[in-house]
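[Discussion] Sanity-checking designs against the backbone

I'm trying to build intuition for which residues belong where. Below is a C-alpha cell string of 208 positions. I'd appreciate it if someone posts a full sequence so I can compare it with mine line by line.
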C-alpha cells in the first residue's frame, strides 16, 4: 500500500541536552541514568494511506529507549487525536507500527514491544513558543537553542532523525502515557516528510 505523511513535529524527552539518540549515542538524563523516555507530537498537513486522507490529523508517538537506538528493545506507543476518524486512526497505526513499510517499517526492526494505540485530544501549537498537548497525558513547551547570530541551532544528517535537518533545544513539562512517565528536558522540532512511495520524501531511518 502507498502512503505519505508530511507536516511539522515537536518532540521532547528525558535526556539531558543534547540527547544522544539521533547519533546512536547512549541516552542519559540529568541524573546520569541511562535510557530515554520521550514523545513526539506530529501534525499531518498532507498525507494519505491509499485512499484514506490523513490531512489535518495530529498524533503522538511515545518511546522508551533502554540504550543506544541500534541496540533495539524499544517500547513504542501511539495516541491519535480523538477528532480523527476511525479509518484515519487505523491507517496511522498501520504506518507507525511498521506494517506498511517505509521508514517506520525499517525502524520496527528495533521495536521490542509495541504498546498499542489510544485516542485522546492531540494538538501542536506553533504560534510563538511551540506547545504540544495530549489530553490527560502530555504537555510540553519547546524553546530552541540559538547560535551567536540568534538563529536556531540545528542538527543535520543524523543517523536517527525525524528530518534531514532539525532544530534542537529544551522542553519543559511532563508526560505520562503507556506507563512511560518523564520530566521533559531535551527537545527538537522540524518539518518532516515520511513515505514508502519512491521519490516521495524520506525513506531513511527516522528517530521515534
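Best answer:
Here's mine. Compare freely.
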Amino acid at each position: 500500500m502507498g502512503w505519505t505523511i508530511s507536516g511539522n513535529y515537536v518532540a521532547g524527552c528525558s535526556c539531558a541536552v543534547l540527547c544522544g539518540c539521533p547519533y546512536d549515542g547512549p541516552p542519559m538524563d540529568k541524573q546520569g541514568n541511562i535510557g530515554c523516555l520521550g514523545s513526539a507530537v506530529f501534525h499531518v498537513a498532507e498525507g494519505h494511506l491509499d485512499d484514506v486522507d490523513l490531512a489535518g490529523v495530529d498524533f503522538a508517538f511515545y518511546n522508551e529507549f533502554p540504550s543506544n537506538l541500534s541496540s533495539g528493545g524499544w517500547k513504542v506507543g501511539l495516541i491519535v487525536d480523538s477528532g480523527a476518524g476511525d479509518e484515519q486512526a487505523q491507517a496511522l497505526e498501520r504506518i507507525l507500527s511498521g506494517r506498511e513499510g517505509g521508514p517506520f517499517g525499517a525502524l520496527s526492526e528495533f521495536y521490542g514491544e509495541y504498546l498499542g494505540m489510544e485516542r485522546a485530544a492531540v494538538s501542536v501549537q506553533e504560534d510563538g513558543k511551540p506547545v504540544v498537548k495530549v489530553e490527560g497525558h502530555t504537555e510540553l513547551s519547546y524553546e530552541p537553542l540559538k547560535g551567536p547570530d540568534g538563529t536556531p541551532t540545528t542538527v543535520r544528517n543524523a543517523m536517527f532523525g525525524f528530518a534531514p535537518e532539525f532544530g534542537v533545544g529544551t522542553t519543559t513539562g511532563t508526560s505520562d502515557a503507556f506507563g512511560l512517565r518523564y520530566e521533559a528536558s531535551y527537545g527538537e522540532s522540524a518539518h518532516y516528510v515520511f513515505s514508502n512511495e519512491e521519490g516521495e520524501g524520506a525513506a531513511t531511518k527516522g528517530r521515534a
